[in-house]
From TrEMBL:
UniProt superkingdom: Bacteria
Pfam family, one: TPR_10
Region listing for Disordered, in residue ranges: 1-25
Stated name of the protein: Tetratricopeptide repeat protein
InterPro entries, A to Z: TPR-like_helical_dom_sf
Organism: Streptomyces spororaveus
Length: 465
């Protein structure tokens, strides 16, 4: 970028024009944006867009194009109608803006696809967009009116990347957080998704924390937000724990006033909270929390097994994990075995509903058996879990490939523990293949799992053949 800026500076013969975007030439990105701004202005004049439209309007349109994009020319016109300076323009003038952008940055896709490409490199687009948002924080509010999920996630992604630039000194962080809070009902699922993918998630996680702890956030909104969190995310673990804590407090208050109506909800909140506490290293608190959940669910299941036995089995499986995490392996094995017994009975009556749960508890039972040295029994449970997950993943790979990889990784460890090294390597290599593909799509969610399988591979390769 520096070499290109030097070359363009050398080639430039006309005097500097303060209206062409050279307010700040302290770094290479601003220097390049100055050259781009002259290119934009010359192209707009050649197409007779100026002086009818000001360059500030066109620069805003360019930032909007980076923030949400457009699937085709009709979507581009809808985008321009969200901008006050273009909304009252005739359609042919808005079409000229689309054509201007398409000429500046031609699309690389088919004729019926997006009408324009992108300013490259990305950092230039982000710097220009950041400047625009810094000057007009409510531009993003205008762009969110009626957008779909893909455009909302693009806006949050570009905004977060622009906010990461040191030139904006945290100002855009605050603007983005406030935007997410104002529109949290629309944006919550996209905030969560984007936070696991962007390199600068701080303004998004700050928004989630504020929404979670705000007494004005309704219980329905909290539950909807909780349902959008991934099962595992190091980046969102603390936020998930705060959300689960808030939900537990709300349900405890309701259950104290009306136990018949809200005890099942309190037990669910406690079960979820224990998982979240375990994820942030608060193992003892996680164990105490799930023990309370099991107590409540056991009482409910005794009164109405048809309704509550599955919930008891889920809490028992979680209890076994929490007991293992604090070194109580025998007690963890007992809880895991009870969970498997319940799910085996449930899956026998309704395999469609409960086979995934049976596979999950078998995988956990295998770990618990291995922890107490029952390696043959551990291998048997691990193999059954893999068989179930393989069947499930063949029918629904998006839902069950991560679970199959986890079961394969565990199976490889169990095979290694009984001296079947080569078979263990075959199993873990399959796990690595699956997890590598998943990690390429989302490294934050699946990168740690991939590393786990690579570590397992190294352990197996180090065993005596």
């Amino acid at each position: 970028m520096t070499a290109l800026a030097d070359l363009l500076d050398t080639a430039r013969t006309e005097p500097a024009d303060s209206t062409a975007g050279e307010e700040d030439v302290r770094d290479v990105e601003d220097r390049l944006l100055g050259h781009e701004a002259r290119y934009w202005q010359a192209s707009a004049a050649a197409r007779s867009l100026t002086p009818g439209l000001g360059m500030d309007t066109l620069k805003t349109a360019l930032a909007a194009a980076h923030l949400t994009g457009a699937a085709d020319r009709e979507h581009a016109d809808v985008l321009w109608q969200r901008l006050p300076a273009l909304a009252d323009q005739p359609r042919d003038r808005r079409n000229q803006v689309t054509a201007w952008l398409a000429a500046l940055y031609p699309a690389t896709t088919s004729r019926n696809g997006p009408p324009w490409g992108a300013l490259q490199p990305d950092r230039l687009a982000e710097r220009h967009t950041g400047r625009t948002l810094d000057a007009d924080p409510y531009l993003a509010d205008q762009l969110l009116d009626g957008v779909g999920g893909t455009q909302a996630e693009q806006l949050l992604t570009v905004y977060s990347r622009a906010a990461a630039h040191p030139a904006f000194r945290g100002r855009l962080d605050t603007h983005l957080t406030d935007l997410c809070i104002r529109h949290h009902r629309q944006l919550s699922p996209h905030i969560v998704t984007t936070a696991t993918r962007t390199d600068h998630p701080t303004p998004l996680t700050n928004a989630l924390d504020t929404i979670t702890t705000d007494p004005a956030t309704t219980l329905d909104d909290l539950n909807a937000l909780h349902g959008r969190f991934p099962r595992t995310s190091h980046r969102l673990a603390t936020t998930a724990a705060r959300l689960a804590t808030t939900l537990t407090r709300r349900y405890r208050s309701l259950a104290e006033a009306n136990p018949d109506a809200y005890l099942p909800d309190l037990a669910s909140a406690l079960n979820n909270l224990s998982v979240c506490l375990g994820a942030v290293g608060r193992r003892d608190e996680g164990l105490a929390t799930v023990q309370e959940a099991v107590t409540i669910r056991r009482s409910l299941a005794e009164a109405n097994p048809t309704a509550y036995l599955p919930d008891l089995a889920s809490a028992l499986n979680n209890l076994s994990v929490r007991l293992g995490a604090v070194g109580q392996h025998d007690e963890g094995l007992t809880a895991a075995q009870e969970a498997v017994d319940h799910y085996r009975s449930l899956a026998g009556a309704n395999p469609t509903a409960y086979l995934p749960d049976l596979a999950m508890t078998l995988n956990n039972l295998s770990v618990r058996l291995g922890a107490v040295g029952q390696h043959d029994e551990s291998l048997t449970a691990a193999q059954e879990a893999v068989d179930h997950y393989r069947s499930l993943a063949e029918a629904n790979p998006d839902a069950y490939l991560p679970d199959l990889a986890s079961a394969l990784n565990n199976l490889s460890i169990r095979l290694g523990a009984v001296g079947r090294r080569e078979e263990g390597l075959t199993a873990v290599q399959e796990a690595v293949t699956i997890r590598r593909s998943l990690a390429e799509a989302n490294p934050e969610l699946f990168g740690p799992a991939l590393q786990q399988s690579l570590d397992t591979t190294a352990w197996l390769e180090g065993l005596e053949p």
